Amino acid sequence: MAKVFIFGSKKVISDLQPKLKKLEEEIKCIEKMENKVEAIIRLFQVISPLQDAGGFEKEIAALRKKGRRKRKEQVEALENLQVHVRRAGRGGINRSKEGEEVTPDNVYLGDVYGLFTKTARFWLSQKENMKKELRPEISENEKSPISNWYLINDYLCDNFVSSHTSGILKQIKVLTAA
């Protein structure tokens, strides 16, 4: 059987496939997690090492260097992935340092509807109490007030996780179809 050699931009995309497949598997698992506080921690654990390694900058630069218009869609998909890496990596909520393991102790959540910012470990340890702390003043339905747990888990974490997981999977789909 003859070896097939892939050159140029096709090689960049081809070489990227195992990295994308692994990322896709991780993101799909995160997407299915019910506890969104745990999901946000896991998202940071997946994205932060990727951010530390430069994300997709090398591939973006290589594809731009090739200068093919046909690859514009793939370059845009990689650039969009890079934005997710930057926004769902270290900094802001995820206060771990480069190379440091992301744990519930260096992820900070809060600053929503008067809830103070505390570590994810604090919110996880207070889950049952927070489910009982109802907030009728911010609920649309007085008969079904939302809880402080809902504000942290669903309002804050689920929105963050969902926006990144769906965005990442969308871009991976573009790149794996290439």
Task: Please outline the helices and strands.
Elements: H1 8-32, H2 36-52, H3 57-66, H4 72-87, E1 108-109, E2 118-119, H5 120-125, H6 127-132, E3 134-135, E4 146-147, H7 148-176
Helix pairs in contact: 1-2, 1-3, 1-7, 2-7, 3-4, 4-7
Q: How large is the count of helical segments?
A: 7
Percent of sequence in beta strands: under 5%
User: Measured on Cα atoms, how large is the radius of gyration?
Assistant: 20 Å
Shape: elongated
Summarize the structure.
Helices cover 61% and strands 4% of the residues. It has 178 residues and is mainly α.
Explain what the structure shows.
This protein has 178 residues and is mainly alpha-helical. It has one domain (10-176). Helix content is 61%, strand content 4%. The chain has helices spanning 8-32, 36-52, 57-66, 72-87, 120-125, 127-132, 148-176, and strands at residues 108-109, 118-119, 134-135, 146-147. The strands form 2 sheets. A two-stranded antiparallel ribbon has the order 1-2. Strands 3-4 form a two-stranded antiparallel sheet. Strand 1 and strand 2 form a beta hairpin. It is elongated, with a radius of gyration of 20 Å. 31% of the residues are buried.
Features:
mainly alpha, two-stranded antiparallel ribbon, 7 helices, disordered N terminus
